[in-house]
Write a structure and sequence with these properties.
C8orf32 fold, single chain
Length: 353
Amino acid sequence: MNKKALMPAFLLFFTIAVSASAEEHIFSFYLLIEGKSAKQAQLPDYGARSLKAFPLRVKEFTFSSPYYAYEGVSFIKQAGEEVLASLPEKRRSNAVYVAAAVYSYITSTVQDAPANYLITDNFHKTYKTGLYALKDKSGNLPEKCRAAVALLRSFTIPARIVYFEGRYAVEYYLKPLKGDSVWAVMDFTEDSPEEHTRPVEWQPVTAGELLNEELNSGEALLKTKEITEMYFIDKAEAVDFFTKIKEGAAVPANNEMPKGKFHLIRKTDYSIQTGVSVTSQAPCEIEFTMPFNDRDTFNPGAPYFRTYDFFVNPGGSALKIYYKRAHTRVNPPMDGRVYSLPVKFWTEPAQAF
């Protein structure tokens, strides 16, 4: 069972001129993050495909679940047979080779598709399931990730969708015969990743799907318009710049990620349209998953990526926004935690003067 706790933050309430709910409104979400980059992890030579080989905190990520269903699904079984057919017999029991074959299968058979945008009461439903991405032979990034998770789990390879380098990716678990296990990243956007990368930004703590933005109530259409990332070496300098941004006295600009430890200001510009049922009495609530990855806390040399300040700015848009405090969710014995901020949005008819 998930356990919830509340982390102190601050209360913010904007009351601005308003407009019709069907209009598009722009707002910005700012994060102040501390992190540490790391070299790309080396994959082991072998990975187990046996449930009994995995620790309890990992087994759940082999289960069939909504959007990643594979049990009793004949098409997933057929696709799995095609994946295995691409490998020599002796490599089919090795998760390292099977995962690589899954990646090749999806990139060769599932063509790129645009994102779907519509007003909805569930952001998860704006994407095809893994099954339908494979059937349709087309999918956008989250849909390709869903297809990969469904196939990997069908092969008893623990897998989950995570957020990595500001986008969705797949993590899969490799348990070698000797040495440390590793969560490897399967990224459908980069053929040649940089030598130094940030760690995964967040990971779910259940077998179910976690999105970067979850719609808890109401109806809305949400788009990511632009992401700006500004890095600092010195924490005091980063905090001072973040304070100036809150005061409207500074604007972040993109720069290069340094090696090793860093502080990052990330600005995400969103556009939102709320449904006609959304009012001040019944606002829509979107829960934003914020970066927080410290699953290797007890390893002094391990990379990490965690949010330690945030705020939401509606800019000059005719939008009302309300948020109070961040939430954190854990699910022992699962590793890590989910750190998120629920934000309420609504508009009201403009008043006549």
